[in-house]
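[Meeting: bench + compute handoff]

Bench side (C.D.) handed over the final construct sequence. Compute side (W.E.) agreed to return the predicted structure before the next meeting so the bench team could plan truncations. Sequence as handed over:
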Amino acid sequence: MRPTESREDYLETILLLRREKGYVRSIDVAERLGVTKPSVSRAIGLLKDARLLEMDPRDGALTLTEAGRALAEQVYERHETLTRMLVAMGVSAETADRDACRIEHVISEESMECVRRMLDKPV
């Protein structure tokens, strides 16, 4: 996995966990992504260094910074849009979700905009 892809996956996961649970801890991220706690600790350190994430020293709660939230929302929007496109093409929801997770990191903005326009057209 490329560093940018990994960073985006962590940010997207933190965004979604926050929406679902109202709070996020490292263990939640590890469980959701199926990675080890040391892997999450390393990623959190890198995200903090990049000023995309903050960690509360009292309880370890993770919070996206404004920049982190913006990037996470952008990645999530791409994921959702690509999933919708694939499902509309006849791909199963499970496969579409899995494939969208991979495509969201490499698709160009030009292609992404075309996908958005295609989905917005009335059938």
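W.E. noted at the follow-up: The two ends are 37 Å apart (CA to CA). C.D. will use this when planning the next construct.
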